[in-house]
Amino acid sequence: SDTNADANTDGDALRTPIVAVLGHVDHGKTTLLDRIRGSAVQEGEAGAITQHIGATAVPLETVSEMAGALVDPSDFDLPGLLFIDTPGHHSFSTLRARGGALADIAVLVVDVNDGFQPQTEEAIDILRRTGTPFVVAANKIDTTPGWNPQEDVPIQQSLEAQSDRAESRLNENLYELVGDLSDAGFSADFYWRVQDFQKNVGVVPLSAMTGEGVPDLLTVLMGLSQRYLKGEMAVDATGPGKGTVLEVKEERGFGATLDVVLYDGVIRIGETIVVGGQNEPIVTEVRALLQPRPNAEIRAEKRFETVEEVAAAAGVKIAAPDLDEAMAGAPVRVVRDRDVDEVVAEVREELAEIEVETAEDG
Ligand code: GDP
Known about the structure:
It is a single chain. By secondary structure, this protein is α+β, with helices and mostly antiparallel strands. The protein has nine helices and 22 strands. The strands form five sheets. Strands 3-4-5-2-8-9-11-10 form an eight-stranded mixed β-sheet, with helices on both faces. The chain is elongated and about 65 Å long. The chain binds guanosine-5'-diphosphate.
């Protein structure tokens, strides 16, 4: 019964949206990602959160556990969210996929006391240029004078526990942030007042430190993805893998390896891949696919476990010969049943686009 028709229907799937977290240094990107990872682990579902190479996968069930009453899982059919681990804003600008941004959606983290800073402006420029939908995490609300911290609760619940004075102090900062966004050309509002997220940027007040407001952020990201990105998330789950190189890294025993975010299809051990290189596209064969070992041991050689195949969206380390000249930001393509020259031409074309843009940036 393995007809072509069957294969096609079986292959249709909705992949996980890829989320990037950007913002000025020290505004709390790392703390926010740690909090999302940490709270999800606390929710009990051991292993529900999976650490990928360069990314963290938060499945829908975990989002809904964390978000409690804010999320009804039956409203969603996307599988969850894949957070790319805080790439510096420079590398983010080169993280492309098929001429668009690798991230489907972004979180712009802004310290609510500090407001817009140079790297906030740069991040906003990149988001505008790549047309990436985003929400603003107005972070560090717990530093508002007189704040009464409420661990991990939705923002409305936290606001109910605050004095009028603390709440109005926070509001002053939030309105200033809304003003900064407006100066940057984005009409923005508190997220619970936003009707149309395609016209208005939602601001989510939160604390990466105490976790209050984090359920709201996950809910908004899930809702936005479901509503506006669902069409783009429909992929051929078994098609030839497509990804973007995050980093080229030497690994003991493997030589040069690629940390890749796979955004489409599947990649398997032994498959021929084409990777963007410093001079020419590199054609090579996947020797190993590596994922972080759960509860990673300290000894370097035990950090990874090998897997047979990886399906989008996911982060994965690829070990293969001849990767020394591979480049961060470059495309990776599984050849599968196609003509290798065709795929090489495709990769060359995409590299040319990236180079044009990098030149324009510089
Ligand atoms: P990054 O450079 O954007 O990754 O920022 P970090 O996550 O490293 O945070 C910078 C500093 O701000 C660290 O000392 C964090 O502990 C602190 N920080 C981050 N988020 C919060 C928050 O919500 N509340 C408070 N009080 N401190 C925070």
